[in-house]
UniProtKB/TrEMBL annotation:
This is Putative cell wall binding repeat 2. The keyword Protease does not apply. Residues 1-35 form the signal peptide. It holds the Pfam family CW_binding_2. InterPro entries: Bact_Sporulation_Assoc, Cell_wall-bd_2. GO terms for cellular component: outer membrane-bounded periplasmic space. Keywords: Signal.
Amino acid sequence: MKSSLRYSHRLLSGFVATLIAAGGLVAGTAASAQAAPPPPSGHRDHGPAVVPDPFVERIGGADRYAVSAAVSAHSFEPGVPVAYVASGEVFSDALSASAAAGAEGGVVLLTQPDAIPTPVATELRRLKPQRIVVLGGTATIAPEVETALRAFSGRVDRIGGADRFAVSAKVSASVFGSHRPVAYVASGTAYPDALSASAAAGRLGGPVLLVRPDAIPVLVADELRRLAPAKIVVLGGLSSVADSVISELRTMGTTTRIDGADRYAVSAAVSAGAFPPGVPTVYVASGTAFADALSGGAAAIANAGPMLLVTTDSIPTAVGVELDRLRPRRIVVLGGTASVSDATLEKLRAYLR
């Protein structure tokens, strides 16, 4: 998938997704996922490529499930290799999925625990994924949902485990070979640091693994030893991952910590460590809610850009500095105005090149 070849289609899909958010279409209407299908697989524009003016767009929706479907429709063509399906009610299982999906050229979609929201079902029908991977145990996503997903793909697998840490390790093991260039490690009890890591991990070719604040779960330690990464990058400060965990990680490889005054500073530092200036696209999501960024991670990987976190009504200083360094041609805001206000969206225009 060539990002530069699909600007015109994304302009249209982003415009329609914004109309969905503004018009208040409820989740459950087919239009929310079908509004702007991308071109058929293999489509190529003829003649000279037209580079659009820099722009900021919003992908919104009636709820997190409609946003999830719209984000997918905005970036992925039918026939994707894999669609990861995770609970939209809890963050833990999907945190590791975005990097895995990005490595496979796939998408992450959110579902309710006991039913597939209609916009998501419509998007799965459009995508026709070669494989669907359900994340988490049956308490997270019911067996009935797994059965219903079989209508959209000839192969449906589930990656479960005793807890979120086991799922994290199993997701990594299912996708990544050994001797990876990097493995990102983040707290499994809080979401902000790992949200920013997905796009960076996807760019650099490594997984995101979850740990407890004061210990490395056995399955995660085993997976890190198997991966034998060239470096391990720990995200967040001492309250997220203790120094004792860092010490243990150093027995498994070269280990560094990316810290900051808050989640926004960490978000900016993660981006600065993985992305050069002049990236084509930057994704921006709320740092106080997880749902929109969970779906956006795989899309950011597909479009070769970072995920940065903002508050509803402002761009934190560290994030503004990073945007000024990146100077993208396009910024994609995830979620409605309750997540990222129109005033914040307008301020983002100052960072376009």
